[in-house]
Amino acid sequence: MNLYDRNQKQREFFNEKIDTYDQVHESYMETKKMLAENLDKGTKKILDLGAGTGLELIHIFELFPSASVTVVDISEKMLEELSKRDFAKQVTTICGDFFEVDFGNDYDAVISTSALHHFKPEEKDLLYKKIYDCLKKGGLFLNCDKISFTQEEQNNCIYELEHNIDDYKHIDTPLTVENEISILTNVGFTDISSREVDKDNYRLIQGRKE
User: Fold this and answer.
1) CA quadruple 92, 108, 106, 139: dihedral positive or negative?
2) How far is the CA of 130 from the CAs of 14, 19, 26, in angstroms?
3) At a CB cut-off of 8 Å and minimum separation 6, what does 31 contact?
4) Residue 203 per-residue DSSP state
5) CA neighbor of 146 nearest in space, from 189, 183, 176, 106
6) Which residues does 114 contact at the CB level (< 8 Å), separation at least 6?
7) What is the C-alpha separation between 66 and 90, in angstroms, rounded?
8) Neighbours of 76 (CB within 10 A)
9) For residue 69, what are the domain limits?
10) CATH number, domain containing residue 96
């Protein structure tokens, strides 16, 4: 199954989860807060990839009340819920596939949480280059996401994706931290770091555009 068709299956999956999404993801609020707390002072223009209903934006607007945020998410039902937030007027939403839509440019930061662990390494090569290109010079990419602890674990997840995706709408393919850092390095990011968060199988990984 090609990437476009897989993403459409994910769209269907997340649209069906709208009634329980916040309840599940509220347990990740401390993880989501770390995105806001690690943004540069003076951050004004942010791109959020896979914001869902906007839970991570709650703390961002607490710390950066004048920020302007563009959100890209494939689920229209998630974005409908986001539009009900108090800060919705400061958010521009784009419903679409990360690989298909125009991100815009000159962002101070690109953030994502619990959204990018659905792609294979070669797909992340393309996505991370697209993220790099949309940042302004000195801009920051912050990704708080699920990881694999070993190469074997990563390989097994990708095997499931490539051989069993027809049986599911959604299969996670988290990469190892080492592979995440390698891809970021290859597309041009510098000052790359990884740190633990409150979830054992999550890491906050960041890189900066020179």
Assistant:
1) negative
2) 24, 32, 29
3) 113, 114, 144, 197, 198, 199, 202, 204
4) E
5) 176
6) 25, 28, 31, 50, 52, 144, 145, 146
7) 8
8) 14
9) 3-208
10) 3.40.50.150
Q: Strands 202-208 and 68-73, how do they pair?
A: unpaired
55/22 Cα distance (integer angstroms): 8
Please give the helix or strand (H or E) that residue 13 lies within, else none. Answer: helix 3-16
Structure pTM? 0.95
Question: How many domains does the chain contain in total?
Answer: 1
- The bridge status of strand 45-49 relative to strand 91-95 is unpaired
pLDDT band at residue 85 using 50, 70 and 90 as cut-offs = very high
The predicted model gives 190-210 an average pLDDT of 95
Per-residue pLDDT tens digits for 158-197: 999 989 878 777 889 999 999 999 999 999 999 999 999 9
Task: Provide the total of helices (H) and of strands (E) in the chain, helices listed first.
Answer: 8, 7
